[in-house]
Amino acid sequence: MLNDTQTEQTTLPTQRGAQLVTVNEVPATIDQTNFPVLGPGAKDYESVTGKISNLVLRKGFSKGWVVGFGIAFMLLMLFLYAVTVLLVKGIGVWGINIPVGWGFAIVNFVWWIGIGHAGTLISAILLLLRQDWRTSINRFAEAMTLFAVACAGLFPILHLGRPQLFYWLLPYFPNTMALLPQFRSPLLWDVFAVSTYGTVSLLFWFVGLIPDLASLRDRATTRGKQMIYGALSLGWRGSAVHWKRYTTIYMILAGISTPLVLSVHTVVSFDFAVSQIPGWHATIFPPYFVAGAIFSGFAMVLTLGIPLRKYYGLEDYITPRHMNNMAKVMLATGLIVVYGYSQEAFMGWYSAADYEKYMIWNRMTGPYAPAYWALIFCNGIVPQLLWMRKFRTNTVWLWCISIVVNVGMWLERYVIVVISLHRDFMPSAWGYYNPSFYDWATYIGTIGLFLTLFFLFVRFLPVIAVSEIRELVHIEHSKHGKH
Predict the structure, then answer these.
(1) What residues form DSSP beta bridges with 22?
(2) pTM over 0.70
(3) Is the bond preceding residue 174 a cis peptide, omega within 30 degrees?
(4) How far apart (Å, rounded) are the C-alpha atoms in residues 22 and 43?
(5) pLDDT digit string (tens) for 124-151?
(6) How far apart are CA 378 and CA 390, in angstroms?
(7) In degrees, to the nearest 5, what angle opens at C-alpha 234 toward C-alphas 233 and 236?
(8) Is 27 helix (H, G, I), strand (E, B) or coil?
(9) Burial code of 85-94, b = ≥16 C-beta within 10 A, e = fewer?
């Protein structure tokens, strides 16, 4: 345990007062001064705008981007192949059967929706709480949210069996066939919750982009880019009236988005909680699902942000302060998730219901026990490393932990969906679930879809909110008497 007077080695620069120091004398206690929200490279408006805009406006494609995009695109082709076979032959190509009628499709749906929570949380809730450290990570986290929601929305549609009739999930008029959806079904609640969340998140993301699109328009050197970014920037000129209206609508959208962050995964948890299946029928599911969603969402932000920061040299914008804070959020939400696991076990025993007790015992010792204990290891044990600062501020360790958490959160959904179904009330109805090649191909393929969209975003739009970073530069200069 370090105290206030001890020091440790580091290669990262830090800022004290008006002086920049390079330093191996960072005190052990973490505070705002030791981990500035901007590094010394973010000196003025021009350096900030130039650095981030050049990532988009430069000519050609870097080798790293081409390789990464190529791998992601091949995975996307695997997804298209799996979906084509599914549409031709039907969902019999998946491993689902009686009694496990919900397999990978619902597991992946819940997993992707959870990942989509961090972006809006970072943008909306942290904005309303005036947390300036959100600024460097909110843009790509919002994009991550949109792409994750797009991936999530595919699975329920494919799981319908006849995806071409997906619009039957929505109330449409004239209702000539008397087929209005069943409003008492939580699956229908999902439709409204996810579509609302996706729409508001898209609006929030696009409104935040407008000033940056105008900057790209003004700095573009080709007529084509000027026209494209000019059209997307909606005539932005940066006048006082524009800024006033922009700030107003941005705060309104943040206010609308905030309850959606909490409500969407709560509604998703109702898919399980309102049923009578042991292992699903639990009142702790809504808060437990929301915490798990934030946990996995921040893990994915780190999984994407750490390589992005390193490859594009964004260490001055995504600083150890961001790593440290995101690790703390992961640690806190991870503890809530572990509390949820303990309460499931306790209530299984305390309920004195034979089916509930057997369900917990079956999770721990049944044929799928390795999956249960693997999730305990990934979500319960590994994140405890984040109590130590050296793990929170070491990007390699933090990236590895984030990967483990992502795996663990997928296992959590697998345990909830599959283990609760494979042995229900009557032993005569017991069975096993074995995912097929097409289950895996669809799941891995959506990762390809997600990464393909993310690579395109990185190449053609600013990954960091330039206008908000310029505000931080102004604030930092004001603190140190610069004008």
Answers:
(1) 13
(2) yes
(3) yes
(4) 15
(5) 888 888 888 888 888 999 999 999 999 9
(6) 19
(7) 70
(8) strand
(9) ebeeeebebb
